[in-house]
Amino acid sequence: MSMxxxxxxAATTTVVALAAPLAAHAAPIxxxxxxxxxxxxxxxxxxxxxxxxxxxxxxxxALFKSALVAGGFSAQDITITPVDDTAxxxxxxxxTDPTLKPLVISGHMDVVEARPADWQRDPFTPVVEGGYxxxxxxxxxxxxxxxxxxxxxxxxxxxxRPRRDIILEFSGDEETTMKTGAxxxxxxxxxxxxxxxxxxxxxxxxxxxxxxxxxxxxxxxTYADYQMVVTNPGGHSSEPRxxxxxxELAAALLxxxxxxFKPELNALTRGYFISAARWERPATAAAMRAFAxxxxxxxxxxxxxxDPSLVGKIGTTCVVTMISGGHALxxxxxxxxxxxxxxxxxxxxxxxxxxxxxxxxxxPAIAFTDVTAGSVATDASPLRPDFTxxxxxxxxxxxxxxxxxxxxxxxxxxxxWFRNHHVPSYGASPIFIKASDDFMHGLNERTPVAxxxxxxxxxxxxxxxxxx
Length: 468
Description:
2 domains; protease; single chain; six-stranded mixed β-sheet; Alpha-Beta Plaits; metal-binding; signal; hydrolase
């Protein structure tokens, strides 16, 4: 056992003891894979894979390719394709039956921007402290990437031979334009199934730290951006006028802020509310059950709308994300703009939601434009028995007795590009965290190190079952 692996085992065993029952094992049973996942994640976090000048996503791709080649993949079966300032990676493990469609494991290498001055620790200097891995990408989603790599390398180490090809692909701009995700899906339009390991799908109980439940994502909301623009002749600031472009825009934004789109249910969200309610506080659980029974229940709607983790599951949401206005400190504004970001409940078009926003804004002087880039509306993936059975088996291997059920994600992922090709895609990250530890896209992102060993167990089970 190398010093690196020995140190990891000792550290992980200590964390498991402190945060019992997170892991299913008293000590890791795939020590090389566990250690590789953490070490590779630390190296990847140190690379600033953020869109724009100095984007190091291509370096992350090179790092991952080196790890795969060292783990037994042929260099000829791994391609890194530059696109603008980023890149994407596709690696193929050839199966024994070339007539079968491939299993795709999907992730992304880029991360959301993080300003070091705002963080308690430098976001691009990985730190393991207090049982957590800190750094941008610790949860979304460099650790998930390296878990997938380590699991495949472990399977090769064990001598596993898949029947169908396994394709591991990482996009390079999922957090921005999502251009590379579309290119990847175009290159693999005939996949049998996509396992998207983006994000954390396991939920830990806030009080006990025990695994509560696991959700796999069979559908997602449609991403949309709308630009609002108000123009005005302007003038001297010493001569205020009744109509001011910034005031006009602000009034419309407040009307949108207080508007709620019609609450809705579909089969996935109804099942989620019923299944997940048992782990929530009594008041929240009651609201979830009431909404599942009647999506017009006003009391339930109010309670769920007040919870940031649940409001996105009950309908379309729109929020202002950027504003700009004025051209001089001593002049009346000639132009004011805002970006409204919406996550649209399945079944609605972007055009219909923009028309609804225009009606809510109630100001014909405000011009609305759909400026969405890199998004398509898709239907939910089917509830395939082979996939659900594989998830249940993987959960039993890693977390015996912990239930798994379907859900709909409020965000957007590369799954939409595969669904657009009518390829079933399912979000199933094996990481378990508390809701209070979920800092994806926010400050001080972190993930418990003790989540690594059972995550490897889950992936080993899922990949073997889905690639046979």
